[in-house]
Each structure stands twice: as C-alpha cells, then as structure tokens.
Amino acid sequence: MEPGSGSSGDGDQGSEESTGEGAGDGDGDPGDGDGDGDGDGDGDGDGEVCVGVTPIIDGDGDGDGDGDPPCVDCAPYWRLYDFQPQSCGFEQTYGLDSFQGHVTLVALLAGWCSYCQSQALKMEQMRLELRLEGYDVQFLAINMVSADTEEYQQNLIERCAFPLFQDTPEDDAYDLHGGGKDDMYIYSPDGTLFLELPVGGDISTNLGTDEGYDNIKQALIDASG
Fold first, then answer.
1. Distance CA 62, CA 43 (A)
2. What is the dihedral angle through the alpha carbons of 81, 115, 86, 39, rounded to the nearest 10 degrees?
3. Rounded to the nearest 5°, which phi and psi values hold at 94?
4. Which of 1, 6, 108, 171 is the most buried (most CB within 10 A)?
C-alpha cells in the first residue's frame, strides 16, 4: 500500500496534534491545568519519567541463540530501533522479549496514515486510563517500512508516549507477525499470543469509535486476568 492511501477515516480527531501528556510546559505547577504538575517533563503528573520497559539488548529468550521464538504461539523475535523520545528504550534496538511479564498490545501502523495517527492517539489515551485503573499493560507500535522518514515518524511521536519501533526490509517485523497495516496483537505476560486482531475482522479495532475502543480495552483487561 502506498503512502497516502491508508484506511478509511480521517484519523485527525479534531485539531489535536499531541496527546497532552507530553506537551506540558514542564514547570511543575500542580493544578495549573497544563497536565504536568510534577516537573519531570512528561506531562502526566505522576512522576513517570519514561514510558515502556528497560530493553533487553541481547538474546532471544529461548537459550538456543538462533533468534527463533521458543514456541508456536510466542511473540516473534525481532530487533528494531525505538525512535520514541519518551520511551525508556529511546535510540536502542531491542524486541518483544523485553516486554515479557506484562500484557502487551502491538499495533502495526504507518506514520503517513491519518487513521494510524488517530489510532496512536487513542492508544495513548487507553494506556493512561488503564494505568490509572491499576492495570499493568504495555503499548507499542511498529512503523511501516514505507514510513521510515523523520516526518512520518514525527506524526506518531506527537500523538503518543509509548515505544515506537521502525521496521526495516531486513527485519520485516510485519511479516513476522503475519499481518499488515492496522492489525493489532495482544500478548500475555508469558509472551504468548492472547488475541490476534486483524483490521476488518470480526472484532472492530477502530479506536475512534466507542465500540472499537471498548473492544480493545476489555480485551486488554481480560488478558490481565
């Protein structure tokens, strides 16, 4: 699919250009309405210095050194560059094994796609909601090979704070997941696939609708046990 074709929907969610939790003024003034209040610069008011997990840089988790996942339903093995400045793994190259121990939502997005930009914005909203509700859920997105430019990456950076990985022709993480743009995958804390959510499937994944948003949020809660 060529840049600009995208999925249906304008994906702009009004005129919002950032999630709000990363756009605070960083002055640390509680109650001033800017949403930061904690002076750590991430804008969420709760002392969250970075988002995501501490990367595991080496190893594939199965002990045999071949880079293959240890089971059929296990998360695929890849190592991609994290370009999200707010991520704990910013500018590091790592993979899904770093997220074991947490329910994890993986979204296949493209920074040139307005629908994907909207999905990233709504994923960030859901991430913060689930965190406030006490759920240990990690979010991440893989940016399509055709969106590997600073401009397209910035489109996603501006709309979320969770880790953003850049796919490459050599790694082809899209193919390793067996999916395409707009597909989502939920992994259990043990690293196995809990639910595959292809775009256009039986379960709506359009986070811009109440149905789609509720579907994904409830699935993440169910995966949390």
1. 38
2. 180
3. -155, -175
4. 108
217: left (phi over 0), alpha (psi -120 to 50) or beta: alpha
164-166 and 93-94 as β-strands: parallel, antiparallel, unpaired? unpaired
Q: What's the pLDDT at 53?
A: 97
Q: Which positions ≥6 away from 218 have C-beta within 8 Å?
A: none
Six token digits for residue 164: 């953003």
Nearest-angstrom CA–CA distance, 193 and 201: 17
- Residue stretches of the chain with pLDDT short of 50: 1-2, 4-45, 61-65
pTM of the model: 0.78
Question: What is the sign, positive or negative, of the torsion defined by CA atoms of 96, 98, 100, 106?
Answer: negative
| Most distant CA atoms of the chain, gap in Å | 53
For residue 169, what are the CA distances in angstroms to 5, 108, 151, 166, 187?
A: 20, 15, 19, 10, 24
Determine the pLDDT at residue 4.
Answer: 44
Of 35, 36, 13, which is closest to residue 26 (Cα–Cα)?
A: 36
Angle at 87 between CA 41 and CA 31, to 5 degrees: 25
Q: Which residues contact 160 (CB under 8 A, 6 or more apart)?
A: 19, 84, 120, 121, 123, 124, 127, 139, 141
How many CA within 13 A on the CB side of residue 137?
28
